[in-house]
Design goal:
alpha/beta; Rossmann fold; 2 domains; 12 helices; 4-stranded parallel sheet; 335 residues; 16% strand
Amino acid sequence: MQPPPDHPPIIAPKIGVLLINLGTPDAPDVGSVRRYLAEFLSDKRVVEIPSWAWKPILYGIILNTRPKKSAHAYAQVWSEDGSPLAAITKRQAKALQARLGDTVLVDYAMRYGNPGIAVTLGAMKAKGCDRILLAPLYPQYCAATTATANDAAFATLAAMRWQPALRTLPPYHDDAAYIAALKTDLERQIAALDFVPERLLLSFHGMPQRTLKMGDPYHCHCQKTARLLGEAMGTPVDVAFQSRFGKAKWLEPPTDVTLNAYPGQGVTKVAIAAPGFSADCLETIEELGIRGQEDFIAAGGTHFARLDCLNDSDEGMAMLESLIRRELAGWWLSA
């Protein structure tokens, strides 16, 4: 049946995959960082404090002091491709597109900053995606990461007349493909070092302790990842949590405290990895690789290595492809 002459163009339906990561400022300058932090720290999933109590602190103190310090940190990791997180996530999307082929449209978005989830979802819908898999790139589920990424996507759909069908990628902290990818990737990096680490420290992003008591499974997911990875590698691993902020009690032990304590325990050669991050970013490159190394050496350490995240490595992309193909089952066959 032929549509009438004035009918809008009919676009062939497609399946979409949207990779979602945390976000980054547009540039390593104070203004860009302030805008990014204002969006990030205004998210009620991230800061679970009543607005009446939090906003005066955010706008009266934090956004007047923290952007300058953070801009300096971002400047140390920025490249010609921009923020490492954005550049790597873009490469991951491109690599996944090549692996899945033309029957699937792969794109990426950031929960905070650009490209935003709402704009990217709208563009995918305009290109014919009537079924979209949201893939927050967080192996360990946390309300402040996975849930808020999904929240933003759901809010976008709430404003759409014609909504695409959605699926969401579950946490994969204990998935055999994820553990195997980490094992292979980390063992290769460790073998390439010019020293033998006496300890492998796994540093996960920290969260306030109260989130565990409120039912967030994040701490348990991190611990299970570490246990399974240690068993797979056949070596003991230590677990710590980085990026503490504010005066509240956070998940312990802290990464910086752990690194400072190692030399006093006779551990002077350390390798550190961040398996909770799907892509290297400010928190891995600057916080661990620069400040972490400085603290460890100052405390008496002699050898330090920051190991890369899975990023767009062959192991990482093969793992991501397997997860995505599994979640697309049924959709693909009926496309």
